[in-house]
Amino acid sequence: MNGGAQGRGLRAYALLYLLFLYAPILLLPVFAFNSGTVVAFPLNSFTTEWFGQLWGNATLRRALFNSLTIAFSAAALATLLGMFAARASTRYRFAGKGTALGLIMLPLVLPEIIVGVSLLVVLLAVGIELSILTVIIGHTLICTPYAVAILTTAFASLDQSLEEAAQDLGESRWNAFRLVILPLVMPGILSSMLMSFTISLDEFIIAFFLAGSEPTLPTYIFSQLRFPKSIPMIMALGTVLVATSILLLALAEYFRRRGAARTGQTNSGGFL
Amino acid sequence: MASRSTEAGQGLRMIAPPLLYAVLMLAIPLLTILTFSFINDGYQTVIWEFTLENYAEVWADPIFRALMLRSLGVAVLVTLATVVLAFPVAYFLSFVVPPRRKAMWIFLITIPFWTSYLIRVFLWKVILGYNGVINSGLKSLGLIEQPLSFLLYNTGSIVVTLAHAYAPFAILPIYVALERIDRSLLEAGRDLGESRLMTFWRVTLPLAMPGVLAAVLIVFIPTMGDYVTPTLIGGGKIPMVANLIQKQMLAVDNKPLGSAIAVTAMVIVTLLAGLFLLLNRRFLRVRT
C-alpha cells in the first residue's frame, strides 16, 4: 500500500508538522535562560535570574497552591463521577441512557466560555460567593467527560464473567467490585486522574469567571502577560510547567500501557 | 422499590450521581441564561418581566454583527486549515508508521497540546511580533530592512495561533477513523483497476469522513468561543464574540444582555454544526 516515495513524502510532511507543533515550546527555554529583559532576538547572555524570581514570588506561590488544590479536587471528583458513568454505560442497559450520557458529555462540545458564564450567573443568583470552591465545581464539570471516556475504555475491556465468578463464589456485590474490578481498572483511574489534573491545572476561562479575587496559575499568568517586565519570569514559569506536564503525561502513558497489558489488549494507540 | 433488582433500576442508580451533577451544574445554568436572556436588566439586579428587547438590541447592534461574523470567519478558516493540514499526518500515522511505533508518534503529537495554553498562545506573539523570531530572522538574513508589522494584530495571526492550538484535536479523530478502515477494501479497489488516487477518493476518504466530521466539530466549536487568542494575539484590537460576552457579563454587568449574546452565539454554533452534519450525510449518500 505505502509506495516508498509516497511514504517518504508523508514522513517529511509529518516531521515538518511536528516542528510546527513544537516551535513555540522550543522557544520557551531559550528566553527563560536569556538575560535580556525584552523577549526578542538577538539573545543576551545566560542567566537563571528569572527562575530565582519565580521562587521568591508570593502571589505566584498562592496561585500555585490554589491551582493544585483545584486540580486535585476536580480530578478526584471527576474521576469518581466518571466511574459511575462508565460503569453504568458499559454494564447496564436502561431507557434514557443515551440522553443521560449525552448531558454528561455535553461540556466537550460547548465553548468553555458558555460553561463559565452560565455557572457564574447561577452561582451569583443563588448567592454563593466566588472562591476556589466555585472553580472546582466548574472544572469538575469539564473534566468529567474526559474521565468518562478514559474509564469507559477501561471498564469496557473487562471480562464480566470475572465479577460474576466472584459473586458466585460468595463475595458480596461491593466486595466483588472492590476486589476484582477495582484493581483491574486502577490504571484507568490513575490515567483519568492525571488527565483531569492536567486539564484543570491549565484551564483559564472558567477560572477567570469563577475564581473571584483568588489567583490561579493561568489567571496569574494572564494578568502578568500585560506587563513587559514580567515576561521573562513567565517564560521561566512556562519552562517549569512544560517540564512538569511532560513528566505527568509520561506517567499517564505508563499507567495506560500497564493497564492495557494487564487486561490483555494490544497496544496500538495513545489516549484514545 | 420494585426496580431494585432489575437491570434498568441498577443502571439508573449507577448513573444518578454524574447525571445529577450535570443537571445541577450544567442543565440548570444553561436554562438560567436562557431565562435571563428574556428578562430586563435593572441596576445591579434583574427585573423579572418577559421581554425580547435583549435580542432586539443584540441583533440591531452593528458591533455584535461584525464580531459574530468575524468569529465565524475565524472559526471556519481555523477549522479548514487545521483539518486540511492534519489529514496527511493522520494518514501517515495510520498507513505508513509501523504499529509498534504508533503509540510513540501519538505521544509526540499530544505533548505540545498539554502544555500551558496561555503561554503557547503568547509565544506566537513572540514569533510573529515586531522584534519576533520571524522578523529578526529575516533581518539577520538581510531579506528585510524594517520589521514586518503586518504579522501580528490581525485575523491571520489569530488563525495561525488557533490552528496550532487545536491541531491534535483534528489529527486524533481522523486517525481513529482511518485505523478502522478494512485494508482489504483498498486492495479490492486497486485490484478492480482503480488508480491509487481514485481509490483514495472513492474508498478511503468516504470511510474517513466520520473522523473528519468529528475533527471539524471539535475544532470549530471551541474556536468560536475562544477568548484568550483574540485578547493576546489581537492585542484587544480584534475582539471576537467571547470578548463581547465577557464585557457584558463582567465589566458592564448587564447579565440579561450578556446572556442573550451567549445564547445567540450558542444557537448559531448549534445550527451550523447541525447543517454541516446534514450536508455531510447527503454528500456521503451521493458518493456511496
From TrEMBL, chain A:
Topology term for the membrane: Multi-pass membrane protein
Alphabetized UniProt keyword annotations: Cell membrane, Membrane, Transmembrane, Transmembrane helix, Transport
CDD domains: TM_PBP2
PROSITE patterns for this protein: ABC_TM1
GO biological process: transmembrane transport
Pfam families xref list: BPD_transp_1
Transmembrane residue ranges: 12-43, 63-86, 98-126, 132-158, 179-211, 231-252
Domain ABC transmembrane type-1 as annotated: residue spans: 64-252
First-listed, main subcellular location of the protein, grouped into a coarse class: membrane
InterPro entries given in the database record: Bact_Polyamine_Transport, MetI-like, MetI-like_sf
GO cellular component terms given for this protein: plasma membrane
Subcellular location field: Cell membrane
Protein family per UniProt: Belongs to the binding-protein-dependent transport system permease family. CysTW subfamily.
Protein name, UniProt field: Spermidine/putrescine transport system permease protein
Species name: Paracoccus alkenifer
TrEMBL record, chain B:
Keywords assigned: Cell membrane, Membrane, Transmembrane, Transmembrane helix, Transport
Coiled-coil intervals, chain numbering: none
Record-annotated ABC transmembrane type-1 domain positions: 68-278
Membrane-spanning ranges: 20-39, 72-93, 105-130, 150-178, 199-221, 257-279
Recorded topology in the membrane: Multi-pass membrane protein
Gene Ontology, cellular component aspect: plasma membrane
PROSITE patterns: ABC_TM1 (PS50928)
Pfam families for the chain: BPD_transp_1 (PF00528)
Source organism superkingdom: Bacteria
Protein localization: Cell membrane
GO terms (BP aspect): transmembrane transport
Chief place of localization: membrane
InterPro entries: MetI-like (IPR000515), MetI-like_sf (IPR035906)
PANTHER family assigned to the protein according to its UniProt record, in alphabetical order: INNER MEMBRANE ABC TRANSPORTER PERMEASE PROTEIN YDCU-RELATED (PTHR42929:SF1), INNER MEMBRANE ABC TRANSPORTER PERMEASE PROTEIN YDCU-RELATED-RELATED (PTHR42929)
Family assignment from sequence similarity: Belongs to the binding-protein-dependent transport system permease family. CysTW subfamily.
Protein name: Spermidine/putrescine transport system permease protein
